[in-house]
Every structure is written in C-alpha cells, then in structure tokens.
Amino acid sequence: MVVVTAVADTHRAIDAVWRIESARLIAGLARMLRDVGAAEELAQDALVAALEQWPESGVPDNPGAWLMSVAKRRAIDQFRRQERLARKVEEIGRDLETQEEPEPELDDIGDDLLRLVFTSCHPVLSTEARVALTLRLLGGLTTDEIARAFLVSESTVAQRIVRAKKTLATKRVPFEVPQGAELAGRLSSVLEVVYLIFNEGYSATAGGDWMRPELCAEALRLARVLAQLAPKEPEVHGLVALLEIQASRSRARTGPDGEPVLLLDQDRGRWDWLLIRRGLTALDRAYSLTDSLGPYVLQAAIVACHARARTAQATDWARIAALYLALGRVTPSPIVELNRAVAVSMAEGPAAGLALVDQLRDVPALANYHLLPSVRGDLLAKLGRHAEARDEFAAAAAQTRNERERRLLLDRAERAAAAG
C-alpha cells in the first residue's frame, strides 16, 4: 500500500511538473528543430521516460532540465537514424554527453515561449485549430481535457491538432516572433485565441454548465504570461485587464444550484477585489503605453466602469455607452452595437435602447444570435409590453445551446406572460 501511495504521489508530481514545464520544453525544442510537431513528440517521449523512471529514482532536483536533456537525446537518436548526425549534433547536441544540463538563460526561455505563442496562433490555422494547439502546447492540456472543455469528441480535438501541426510544417511557418508591420496583425491573432478560450469558460456556448472555470483560469494564465513576454504592448495589458476584471465576478455569476446570476443582480461583495485591483493596474499600464486605445483596452475600460461601481445603481452607464461607441469605431460589429444599445437603455431609458436594437433586427450576422431577442425582451418588459417580451424571451431560449441559459430565458418568458 505504501508503494502504491508513493507511485501515486510521484505521478501527481509529474503531472504538476508537466503543467509547469511543458510549454518551455516544447518551445526550446521547437527553436532547435524548427518543427513544432516534432518538438511536441519529443517532449511527450520525455514525459513517458519520466513516468517510467521517476517512480523509482524520484523526481530530480531540476525536472525541467531533466526532461529537456532526455528530449534532446531522443532527437540525437532520431538524427543518427536519419544519417544527419554531423549537422544536427553541431546545432543542438554539443554537450549532451555531460550529466548536468545547463540552465537556459531567462531571456532565451522568454524568447522561445513567445515564438511558440505566435506559431501556435498563426493565422494560417483555423480558429478551432489555433485554440486546440495553444491549449495543448502552451497549456499542457491533454486532448481529452480540451475535448471535455469544448464538448467535442477527443478524436475531433486530436485531428485538429494533427492537422494544425501538418499545416505549420507544410506552409513552412517560421518559428519566430514577427517583426515590423506584421507584428500587429499576428499579435491580434494571439489575443483573439486567448480571449476565445476565456469567453468559452466565462459563458459556455453549450452544455449544462453556465461557466467552465478551468478555461477561464487557463486563459488568464496565458494572458499573464504574454504580458511578461511582451511588456510594451498595450493591447496585451488591455487583455489582461479585461480578463482579470471579468474573472473577478466568477463567484457571483452563479447561484447555489449553478443557475446564472446576471450582472445587475450579482452580490458585489462576492466579487474578487484582488483580481479587480490587478485588472485596474494592468489597465493603467496599458494607458501609459499608448494614446490610441485598441479594442482590448476599450473593453477593459468598459468592465472597469462596472468594477468601480460598488452598486449596480452607481454604474456610469453614459461612459460605458461612449466607450462602446469608440469600440464600434475601432472594430465595427453588430454585437458591439447591441451592447451599446443596452448601455444607452440604462443611461437614457429603455425606449432609447429599443430604438437602437430594432435597427439590428435584420442584420444577417445576428440572425441566430440569442442575445438579440433576449435584450429586446428585456427592454420590452421594462416598457410594459409584456406579451411581446414573452415572445422574445421564448425565441432567445430556442436559440441558445446552453441549458442553464435556456431555463433562465424560459423563466423570464413565463414571468412576462404572468405580468401581461
């Protein structure tokens, strides 16, 4: 029994080490091999070796260096078999025969991780592939964990990852940080992936849970790492601020039985004020780096308005409406306009908001967007048009794929019907 417990403890330690070290390990190997797929395979080989050896030998003092050493040795073995030893040994294997693996310089680790971030989120990949590959390579999540998080099959996730690595190799995507004019567009792709991961955790698209906290936590971790790697990019700090402040509401967003609690009904005493302070600090950092506010900084400024209001009634809705107007100019979107309509309704009254919402009813992009009828139903109810509100809430319930949200909307439809 003691032996079984010791092995289990070692496996837990290996799992923890893998979560911490896997991204740096893969990043370092990818820099040497210029092949993300091969780098991940070698990292997995090193993990298997750890699972085989550490239960007997114990976890080494420097587990990251141990894993890197094993992975490099496996790479050398492969190159020997491929009769390319001489050239590759010179590139990646000079001192592999020594027992001690030298610690990489911190700058090298940061540069490698940043290269891995930009490679995993390269625009040549589909959005789904970028998300899966990022969670796999930078988050250390298994295909099963990613599949459960997004409610898809494990085989689907595995295929996405395999195709993504093949695409990177076929397209000869360089393992590097983009420079000059290319940087802004590529950085936008990276931030989009992190934000997509967070949003899926914050408001689950489908399934029986309103939130998936593990995805929120992983996205926030990735954003913080990115801020350390790219400290002079205001949009990175804007994203961190946005996620920190949104994550601060997590405890208040669900009731005792897991039911959704909307923003205006939340107990703000349950908000995490440490996360809010961190978010506001990140927002100040973003402001200090630019006079031209990008989409993530603007969205962070919006959630900061909510964070600074100790009660729902104290919210500065006029400023929020103005910020949404600015956001719509930077990134025109009907969803941004829908959010602005909500802010206008709170600042100027439901009739003003409804007038803006009605302008969006025929927009093709919102044809199946459940929040459009949901918002319209809310405004109609406030105006006393309860029969119309009931129909809108029912329509929204039919469109959402989240069971918790569906029950919330059906309940609002019933209340509207009773009020009418």
UniProtKB/TrEMBL annotation:
Pfam families: DUF6596, Sigma70_r2, Sigma70_r4_2. One of its GO terms (molecular function) is DNA binding. GO terms for biological process: DNA-templated transcription initiation; response to stress. The keyword Lyase does not apply. It comes from the Bacteria. Residues 25-84 form the RNA polymerase sigma-70 region domain. Belongs to the sigma-70 factor family. ECF subfamily. This is RNA polymerase sigma factor.
